[in-house]
Each structure stands twice: as C-alpha cells, then as structure tokens.
Design goal:
Elements (H helix, E strand, L loop, with lengths): L11 H4 L2 E5 L3 H17 L2 E3 L15 E4 L7 H14 L9 E6 L2 E5 L3 H14 L8 E6 L6 E4 L2 E6 L3 E3 L10 E2 L2 E2 L4 H13 L3 E3 L7 H4 L6 H11 L5 E5 L4 H4 L11 H17 L5 E4 L16 H12 L5 E5 L19 H6 L10 E6 L22 E7 L15 H9 L10 H5 L7 H8 L10 E5 L15 H12 L5 H12 L8 H12 L2 H8 L37 E2 L19 H6 L9 H4 L2 E2 L10 H25 L7 H33 L11
Helix pairs in contact: 2-4, 5-15, 9-10, 15-16, 16-17, 17-21, 18-21, 21-22
The structure holds beta-D-glucopyranuronic acid.
Length: 704
Amino acid sequence: VHAAWLPPEAFRAVGSRRVLVLGEGLLVDTVREEATRACARHGGGVRHRPPGGNGTADEPFDLVLALSTAEAPAVVTAVRDEFRRTSGQDAIGDEGFVLAHRDGVTVVLADEPAGLLYGFFHVVRLGETAFDAARPAEHHRPAMRRRMLNHWDNVDVHPVMGQVERGYAGGSIFWKDGALREDLTRVRAYGRLLAACGVNALSVNNVNVHRTEAHLLTDRLGDVAAIADELRPYGIRVHLSVNFASPVILGGLPTADPLDERVRQWWARATERVYQTIPDFGGYVVKADSEGQPGPFAYGRDHADGANMLADALAPYGGVVHWRAFVYNHRQDWRDRSTDRARAAYDHFAPLDGRFRDNAIVQVKYGPMDFQVREPVSPVIAAMPATRLAVEFQVTQEYTGQQRHVCYLAPMWSQVLGFRPFGADGPSVADIATDADTGGAAERAVRTAADGGAHAGGGLVAVSNVGDDRFWTGHPLAQANLYAFGRLAWDPRLDPVAVLDEWIDLTFVPSATADPERLRRTLHAMMDESWLTYERYTAPLGVGFMVRPGHHYGPDVDGYEYTPWGTYHFADRDGVGVDRTRATGTGFTGQYPKPWSDVYESLAECPDELLLFFHHVPYGHVLRNGSTVIQHIYDTHFEGVEQVAEIRRLWEKLDRELVSPEVHARVSELLDEQLRCAEEWRDQINTYFFRKSGVPDARGRRIY
Ligand code: BDP
C-alpha cells in the first residue's frame, strides 16, 4: 500500500451515511464506486436509482449527489431553485457543483459528471461538517480551467538525469526498464489523489524529449493511451511532451521548418492518429530552442511560428499546445556583463504578443530565472495581454531541498498568484492565468483592454514531484506541496495554511485518534514557515543559485559563478548582487510595468527580500530592518539552522502512535539530513561572505 492522503478512514463521515447517487457517465460511476467502497467500510448504504421511480418518494437519505433534478428527491429541486434565486444564474458549469444542506440532507448538484466528482471529494474533505448544520447553496467552480501537472519522466533511464529528471522520489510510476509498467493500478490511484485536489490534466513525459520518448507520439502511442485509460475515470486528460524535430527524427523529413507544407502535413497526420487513439487527448507540451532542444530558430522562424503550427494541427480536435517561455542562452560569456538571463524570456516572447493562436498557450515560469526559492514574478506575465498565459510552478523541489528538506511551497505560490504586476488596481497573476468565463471579469477587463478582446487565461501548471517511492514523494511531508498545488489552481485565493490543514486532515488525522490536535499543531509548527526557513539558510536576499552545479543540491558558493549559465551573484570584496537597473545595470527592471519598474529600480524602495536580485550593494548597505546586508546574511543563516533543529525536536517529541512508524522513521531520517545540509549551507555561506568582506559577525558567533 502506498501511503498518501485519502486513507480509508478519511471517508468515515460519508461512508456512515445513506447516500444516493443519480446520473450517468464514467465519472458518475467513479463517484458510485467511491461511495460504495466508503459505505461498505463504514456502515452506510448507497442507492443508485431514484427511490420508487419518482421524485416525491421519500426514502430518507443523508447525502444526495445528482446530475439533474429529474427523478431526484424534492430537496434537490429545492436546492436548484435556491441556487437560481440567489445567484441569478442557471448554469453550474462544466466542473462546478452546488453544495447545500437543507432539511437534514446534504446535496451535491452538478451539470456535468466532473462536477459531481469534485463535489464528492469536497464532501469528503468537509467530513462531519458537511452533515451537521444547514448550509445555503454554495456554488463551487475552479478558477483555472486547466490545472495541470508536467511529469519530467523518461521511459529509459537517462545516464545523467536518471529516469525522472529532477525526480526525488524514485523511478517513474508509468515506465520501468524501458517499457510501460504492466501493472498500472498505481497510476489509477494517482489519478484519484489528483482528482481529490482538483488537478485535471497531466503531461506524461519529460520536456526534454530524448530519442525513445519522442516515439510516444507515434509507434509508442499505446503507452500514452494506456495511461489515459487509467486517469480518465478521475477526470484527468493526458498531454504529451513532443520533440519539435519529430518530423525529422520520426518522419524522415529533411526539415522541421514550421512553415514547410510537408512538415505541417506530417504534424496534422500524426495528430489525427493521436486523436483516433485517444479521443480526449489534451494536447502537446513543447520546450523549444531551450537548453539544446530543437526549435524554430534553426529555420529562421520564431516561437509564434512554431507554436501556431502545432496549434493548427491540434485545433480540429480541440487540443492545445503549451509552448514554454523558458528560453535563454545557456552558453553565455560570463565576462560579458551586458547579457542577463533574467531578461531572456521577455525579450523573446513579449514582441510576439498577439501572434499566438487561441489554442496556443505560452507557459511561463513564475520567475525570470529558474525556480529559485525567491524570485520576482516574471515580467512576461504582464507583457502579453493578447496571449493565453499559463504560469508554471515547480512542485518537485529541485532548488528547494529536493524532497529531503521540509519546504512547504504553497505560501510562495500564493504570494506569486496574488502579485499585481500593474499595481493595486490591476489584475493579479491568478487573474491573468484564469479563464475568461470564470470569476474576476472586472479585473480581466483591465488586462484585456489593450487588445479590446476577452482572452481566456492558460491556467496553472506545475512540474510533478511523485515517483514510485512508497510515499510517492520521498519525503512524506512533500505530498502537501502536490495537494496544495491542485487546491490553489482550483482557487488561488485559498489560504496556504488552511490548505495545509486540509491535507493534514485528509492524510493523518483520520487515523490519529489519540490526539489529532497535537498532531495538527506539530505539523503546522514544522511546515507553515518552512519555505522561509529554507530561504534563511541558503542563498540570501534573492540572489539565487549558489548550489552545486549539475544536481543542484547543497551549497557551492561559486559553483555557477564563472560558467555559461547566466546565474551569477557578483560577490567581491566590496559587495554582492546583480545590478539589473536601467540606470547602471542590465535594464531588466524596465521590463516591468509601473509601479514595479520604479520600485525595483530604486534602491530605497526595492523590497529587501529581492534586493540582491536587482541591485549590487556594499556589504554595509542598511536594510529596512536596520541590519546591514552582511549582518543579515550571518543572522539568517544562524537562525535558519536553529529553526531546522527546532522542527527536528518537535518531530522527535511527537507521540509515536500519532503517525505510522514508517512515516515517523522516514521523516526522522530526512530531518537529520536537512539539519546536516542546513549547517553546511550556513557554514559555507557565512564563511564565504566573511572572507570576501572581512566584516566580523557583530554577535561573535563561530564563522570559519
Ligand atoms: C531546470 C532544470 C532542468 C529542466 C529545465 C526546464 O534544471 O532539468 O530541464 O529547468 O524547465 O530547472 O526545462
């Protein structure tokens, strides 16, 4: 058994009730099966047909999940009427549901099967509170139409990257020894976990599409179809990362030029076959002209030409292409101070705004660099009002402790999603990534004013963090990041701490009968601020990197300093940080609209936590908290390590019976490693800056 959220005990409230499920369709069947399993375990009962064949028969039910009011008990009609009256609308929406509790009955009503599925899991999440008091009709709908995970799985084990690129939880859950796994029950279980947090799309393979993986598009399409079959009952569509050079690699054509008619035909036919095999296929994900991947540049074409060619192939079937904006020169000359990797995505993509097809989504990493613990929001997100943009997060903790460190990332994501690139009156990042027909219309009007039209947003995407590890994510607590990603994509306004609470409740509390409050308190104390703790003991004040080149785990103060990757901190004897101002630096601040272009440009106004991202300052520069940069570095590094020691102490103090011995042992072992690694960071970073600056620690602590 693989331990995760939704253990059988999490269904106690639902499973002890009298449940009625009404409706037809694959996803309704899933709800039926879920309810039946829960009731068999917890003593309730499920009916699948209307009682007595008409809506007025009143066999008593505690929970009714219905696709329509026809033949449903009268309370369902009453809820529908109440919804119409109070919302002034008729449609519940594709994936939405209405939840109410009246006359002693909890009702979930949906227009489409997917809504019933999400409504069911919402009731599970609420537990007893879904049944204990009257509840007016609430309308739940996802903010983002597409809530997607990108797997970076390879079919084969890659000599450098292993099977899952940046995977920290074992091998792929899809492939083993170069072949699709024979037993895919785990994929189905994964779909269930994802449905319970709202994810509805998934790309199965690495964005770096190597030889074997390129064939998933053609002769190995059966693998993708089999995965799609497992995920479909949980409302998840499958997408595929494709190699831009496929017409050459797979089709034997002399070119992959996106404007060449033979190339267009090749993609059209390949895509037709994909849809013949997988009719609900989602679309393609493409990393092009980035870190060695092929792309349109080779033919003198641009990213819009490339993306539109694939968009055209997908359009007849309603598919989309996610075209990644992670494009920069990874062979830059570190001696040339005029190039700035942070500028690259904007420089490549902003000029193309308005040229992308409606089913071409430009997928932008949340920051301008690369998934660092602290980055400003990417300026691309504010620069393409006439393009559908998806924002990309990294659930896999490549730069945030690689699932050996506790680092709950939802507070960071939530900050990014709430950021308003045009200032307080403009739309948030979440609004920009949100679809046009769901919520926030007024704010979107601001965004789309530029082109006068309503452009749907592209949704939220994250790189997955699961593997064939017993706990799915290596670190059992890293599951919370996966859960929270789905929930924030459903509703970006959720409070990350409340989401963590949900995850704790769904994962541990059902079995922690001894003292659930204690468990909850301990986990919150360990996790709520763990992102900030991680930031404290690693690279300071937004400067980023300082990690070991290649695998990116642990400190290496100058590891990336004189390399072609564009990831520099510019520390010298006088100061540290990257001058990205317009006045004296790379001009990157000019890629932001006001007010941020001015805020970031100004040394006085730039937020401290991003200071070294935007400015090169002397070590004696005084921060808003009154501390100097150098003293801040020392203080946060000592403090960060102390906090890790404290969370380790909290975990050790936890009663053993509150979590399973396996979970306890795994977390303990990893906390030892986190503490060791945090001390390594502290000592190397502090010593490095002490030796560079010659400034001693004001509090006389040990620096080597
Ligand atoms: C970087 C990873 C690399 C990925 C790349 C990407 O180090 O393995 O291929 O991102 O997003 O963070 O394409």
